[in-house]
Write a structure and sequence with these properties.
The protein has about 300 residues and is mainly alpha-helical. It has one domain: MetI-like fold, CATH 1.10.3720. Helices cover about 75% and strands about 0% of the residues. It contains 13 helices and no strands.
């Protein structure tokens, strides 16, 4: 007996996927841009396998071993290593001091939209809304300007302004990384859970109270994590800044490379590796501590 509740046979074939004209045009443009970039950038990996390329690579590699561990050379590295750590630390601190308030102003949900501004925007005039939105756009433009100019160029300009030494490197990292930190801070703050903010606002809490007890506690782990990552990047950046006279271990690295002392270069690279690894371990411990406390 045939089951009355049996349904019609279901087709197992997938429906044909249709691609919009925009997707097709975008894909074609991407492929053409990639092929054009490959040609204009003169990407020629086989150049490394040509006789001259192999000869230069072999000269560099054989010149690196054994590394220079003589006391005459190692004794000169104490001050550059300390300068590199101080440069990266103070540069990151300056970036936080500049980037955090700019990041708050560049957060849309804090400036003119979101739960924190609904009541004020209803009661205020349109001019207040335009002023806040204009401030938001201006701050975003400033952060974009800070990020547009690489720290190497910032260091070159500050060396001309204040002279040689670590201070131009601190200014370069502080300004350049402030743009990066401010942008990421604003994105982290915009994506927090709005539930606690609404609860605090319903109790009549002030805007500052909502910020301190509802917004920042949620965002703090991510804010600290990205800041520590930027400090790790600042260690590497401070090495590059030494090539323009901003002090640190990078200046000694530039001298060794110019004098073709590749065994000294290997020693400096090994020291830099230890420094970056140490900062990475320290950052991981700090992140775990903050996450464990925030989950309690």
């Amino acid at each position: 007996m045939q089951n009355r509740h049996s349904s019609a046979p279901v087709s197992l074939t997938l429906p044909a996927r249709r691609h919009s004209n925009f997707q097709i045009v975008w894909s074609v443009l991407f492929i053409l841009t990639f092929l054009g970039s490959y040609r204009l950038a003169q990407v020629k990996p086989l150049l490394l396998l040509e006789p001259e390329g192999r000869r230069n690579i072999w000269r560099f590699v054989t010149g690196m071993f054994p590394p220079d561990l003589s006391w005459d050379f190692v004794s000169l590295l104490g001050r550059p290593i300390i300068e590199t750590i101080q440069l990266s630390l103070m540069g990151t601190f300056m970036a936080v001091v500049i980037g955090f308030p700019l990041g708050l102003l560049a957060t849309r949900s804090l400036t003119f939209t979101g739960i924190l501004n609904e009541r004020e925007m209803v009661d205020s005039r349109r001019s207040v809304f335009l002023l806040r939105k204009g401030t938001y756009l201006l701050v975003r433009a400033i952060l974009s300007l800070f990020r547009t100019i690489p720290e190497f160029v910032w260091a070159f300009m500050f060396v001309r302004a204040v002279g040689l030494g670590p201070f131009p490197g601190v200014l370069a990292i502080g300004i350049s990384y402030a743009g990066m930190l401010g942008k990421v801070y604003s994105e982290i703050l915009e994506h927090v859970n709005p539930g606690p903010l609404e609860s605090l606002q319903a109790t009549g809490a002030s805007r500052l109270t909502i910020l301190l007890y509802g917004l920042l506690p949620q965002a703090l782990p991510n804010l600290v994590s990205y800041t520590l990552y930027r400090w790790e990047c600042a260690i590497r950046a401070s090495t590059i800044l030494g090539f323009v006279g901003a002090g640190g271990i990078g200046q000694q690295l530039e001298i060794s490379m110019r004098m073709f002392n590749f065994n000294q270069v290997l020693t400096l690279v090994a020291i830099l590796f230890v420094m970056v690894a140490g900062v990475d371990v320290l950052s991981a411990k700090v992140r775990r501590t903050i996450l464990s406390r925030s989950s309690v």
